[in-house]
Hints:
The chain contains 7 helices and 10 strands. The protein is of the alpha/beta class. Strands 3-2-1-4-5 form a 5-stranded mixed β-sheet, sandwiched between helices. A 5-stranded mixed β-sheet has the order 8-7-6-9-10. The longest helix is centred in the middle third of the chain and has 18 residues, at about 70-90. The radius of gyration is 17 Å and the shape is globular. Residues about 225-233 have low confidence and may be disordered.
Amino acid sequence: MNELKILAVDTATEACSAALLVGEKVFSRWEEAPRDHTRKILPMVQAVLDEAGVTLDELDAIAFGRGPGSFTGVRIGIGVAQGLALGAGVPLIGISTLAAMAQGAHRLDGAERVLTAIDARMDEVYFGQYELIDGRIQLVGEEMVSGPAALVASRGTLPGSFTRVGTGFETYGETLAALADELVASQVRFPAAEDMLPLARSAWLAGEAVAVEQATPVYLRDKVTWKKLPGRE
């Protein structure tokens, strides 16, 4: 049986990354590079392919960070993934940015209960709760976009200890501290394509890969409008 080969790309936040799964081996590149994704992502893709000695037409699927995150970043990521998938003739797998961050906390910190929050601007956060279930990081409830105070008011305080991940906790940490009895900091700030790979493999095995034209981003906001801050989206 041939080894499963999945390429992952992510540009949904300030970080830019590409990773390749070949059987059980992982090849990856990651860089925090705000506003430079379009220049960096394709060289990263080529670098992991070259390191593994794999060509695009040998891939089984391509995974991409489907959001939530920067609107521009999410669009760049899905556009790159669609272009590569069309050239390779392979399907796509959309992976939640929040889930990838939770997976990163599990990989790097051994976290089993994770709260992820990305600063969504406009005094809101993108939020998700994840737990290790049957050996996999899985979403509990739904991903959402909310004001920090409204999020705490609607959810209450979770019992026990959780690992907190993402820029939302940096920006609104004092308010979001009430989400759990104890919040433990993670070294993860942004998603990494490497952490999309276990999720993409599970999705592939579950038959969840889709045709290129069916791949869709997830913004969480109904209206794609936002305030532009100096030097930021």
